[in-house]
Amino acid sequence: SIINVGRINAISIPHILPEKIHTLKMTIPRGQMYTIILSDGTQVCLNTGSSLKYPSQFGSDSRVVELSGEAYFKVTKDAARPFIVKTDYMVTRVLGTEFNVRAYNEKDASVTLVSGKVEVESGDKARLSLNPNECAMIKASKLQVQTVDVKKYTAWVDGYFYFDNASLEDIMKELGRWYNINIEFANKSTKEYKYKFWADRNGSLEDAVDLLNEYGKASIIVQNKRLIIYK
Questions:
Q1: pLDDT of 19-56, one tens digit each?
Q2: What are phi and psi of 67, to 5 degrees?
Q3: DSSP 8-state class, residue 80
C-alpha cells in the first residue's frame, strides 16, 4: 500500500513467495521520497533519485541491502543478524540503530549516526566506529570521522532543505535533483558562494529561489526548465 503525503510516500511491500528469497529493487523518481518497511521491520526512508536493492526475506546470518543515492535507516535490533548497507563508496554494519547514508557520488558520500553505534568501512580497508553526532566521509581518498550537526544530514527526512555554510553549487545540485530541473551557472565564481539556507521541500521551486535571492549574493532565475545563476 502507498500513502501519499505531498511528495512523501510510505510503502509496506508484500513479500513474494515466502518460501523463496527474491531480490527486489525500489527506485525513487525525482521529487519524491519513499519509506520502505523491510521484512525484519526495518524502516528505510529513500531520498529522491535513490535506489535500494534488498531481499524479500533476510537470511539467518545477516541482513544486506545495496544503496545508490541517499537513505535514512531505522534498523530493527537483531544481535544474531547484523544489518549491512553496501554502497559504491562505503560498507556500514549495525545491529540496530538510526543513521543516514549518502552515496550519490564519492565527493559527498557519508554515513551519519543519529543513535547507537555503527562500523563504517571503505575501499581502502579502513574500518571506523561512529558515535552519535559523528559522520564518516571520504577526504583525500581516506575515510575520516567528524563531529557534525546531524540536522544538516537528516533534515530531508522531515521534508526540509537545510544547509549550513554550504556552497551554492551544492545547494543547486539538491534543488535540481528534487525539482528535476537543469542548473546553469552563467558566472562560475558564484558556485563557491556560501549560504545558510532552510526551506520546505514540499514548497515550490520558485519559493526556494526567492529565499536564496533574498541573500543578495547571486541572482537566480527560473527559465525554460532551467535554473540560471548570475552574479
A1: 577 899 999 999 999 999 999 999 999 999 999 999 99
A2: -120, 135
A3: T
